[in-house]
Amino acid sequence: MSTSTPDLRHLERALADHDEPALTADEYKQVFRRHAAGVAVVTLRDGDAHVGFTATSVISVSAAPPLLAFSLASGSSSWPALSRASTVAVSFLAEGQEDVSTRFATSGVDRFADGGWTALPTGEAVVDGALAWVRARVVQRTPVGDSYLVSLRALAHGVTDAQPLVYRDRAYHRLVPPT
């Protein structure tokens, strides 16, 4: 798969077939800023280097077979490495891990320098203290708009009893105990 910007011709053709008005990018962002999402860190090995980034787009796709997916902008600094990766680890962050999320969302820094992670025997890093993690094989990279939808098959996992870290409207939140 190419590491360049996704071919948008198929999307442009599909959009041209409809006359409905579309949301602007800012209107669309307004909607999803209000949608609460769990926070995950995706990591992989690229040669001798660790690569990782924060993602709030992780979704469960299927339980049988166990499939999950996330999206990543084609212009992301992590995309070239992800375009070559055969496996990744997805760490679902726990409350109190706001600093980890921020670090892995910051460009131009060594996201692994401060520690707080453990390498699996297969080389991928998982975040220490995460709510859960999944090691997965990349099964498909689908260009969609200006991003790629990356589909994964879950291979291994770990879970804790921690509470999830939630992101909404550009801020981190914690869940309140159920009533």
From TrEMBL:
<dbReference type="InterPro" id="IPR012349">
    <property type="entry name" value="Split_barrel_FMN-bd"/>
</dbReference>
<keyword id="KW-0560">Oxidoreductase</keyword>
<dbReference type="InterPro" id="IPR002563">
    <property type="entry name" value="Flavin_Rdtase-like_dom"/>
</dbReference>
<feature type="domain" description="Flavin reductase like">
    <location>
        <begin position="32"/>
        <end position="174"/>
    </location>
</feature>
<dbReference type="InterPro" id="IPR050268">
    <property type="entry name" value="NADH-dep_flavin_reductase"/>
</dbReference>
<protein>
    <submittedName>
        <fullName>Flavin reductase (DIM6/NTAB) family NADH-FMN oxidoreductase RutF</fullName>
    </submittedName>
</protein>
<dbReference type="Pfam" id="PF01613">
    <property type="entry name" value="Flavin_Reduct"/>
</dbReference>
